[in-house]
Amino acid sequence: MTQTVAPTPAAAGTALPATAPSPSPFRRRRIRQGLGLGHAASGVLAWVYAAMLVVPFYYFIVSSFKSNDEIFADPLGLPSSWSLDNFTTAIDSADLDLAIVNSVLVTGGGLLLTLFLAVPASFALARTTGRAGRVMERLFAMGFLIPTFAALFPTFLLAATLGLFHTRTFLIFLLPATAMPLSVVILTQFMRTIPRELEEAASMDGATPLTVLRHVYLPICVPGIATVVLLNFLSFWNEYLFSLIIIGPDPAQRTIQVALPTLRLDTGTDYGVLMAATLVTLLPVYLVYTLLQRQMQRALLSGAVKG
């Protein structure tokens, strides 16, 4: 039985389909004009958005060097002097130096405990391929469904039962529990992008799972870990509700977010002092973001390319 071959259009004598005609000069000019208008519009929107961010920040900085009279007389004007009196008054009135130390202890302890728990859990989830692994990952993701206020009363009872009420220790153990769902989801997805061949090659050389985690996964996951650290640092540093309920207003243990509102008085608030204290609370956030932003950008670009 012979097999017939369909003739090609050329062999059949038919003309090949013509390539798409190039646009006319008038159409090319219209396309370039449209692209130019699009770039100009995006540039204008970018500058408007930047102004919306810069103007309040400028008002915030200059107000921290002013008195109340200067703030209300000329809100956007420069201060008459760049004295640091507002900063020293804020630190002395609200014990901000001690509050900063407490916030560093709570935030640093919470971050270390979060990484200590989230990295091995993510490593195990990333290496599993069965149904149990998927179920466990979904259980971690269900942590997003628990609202903060719903966990407030059980947390209060737990702290009282353990005898850790009004202590920073309980807050250090509590904050990682709130951060585990997001941390595990981010690190698991990042570790899944690592080729299995690297792990198989290390295992053939006698590496244990802990060795594979330390020498293969962790060096590659530095951008993902930096992303988790930055996001959780912002959450832990700015946490207010649990810090107020669990630690309370004790000046020896309260965090900076609890100490800051004490500068607002019913008899009359010195807004210059309040602005100066708020600026002090933002400096650690700016420093940490400056240190980790490049790693976070690498993680986002890596996810965009591989996705």
TrEMBL record:
- For the keyword Membrane, the answer is yes
Cross-referenced InterPro entries: MetI-like, MetI-like_sf
Q: What would be one Gene Ontology cellular-component term for the protein?
A: plasma membrane
What Gene3D superfamilies does UniProt report for this protein, alphabetically? MetI-like (1.10.3720.10)
The portions of this protein that span the membrane are 37-61, 104-127, 139-164, 170-191, 212-234, 271-292
Mark out the compositionally biased spans (Low complexity): 1-21
Q: What highest taxon heads this organism's lineage?
A: Bacteria
Which CDD domains does the entry link to? TM_PBP2 (cd06261)
Region annotation Disordered: where it falls in the sequence: 1-24
Q: Which residues form a coiled coil?
A: none
Where does the UniProt annotation locate this protein?
Answer: Cell membrane
Q: What is this protein called?
A: Transporter
Query: Which species is this UniProt entry from?
Result: Litorihabitans aurantiacus
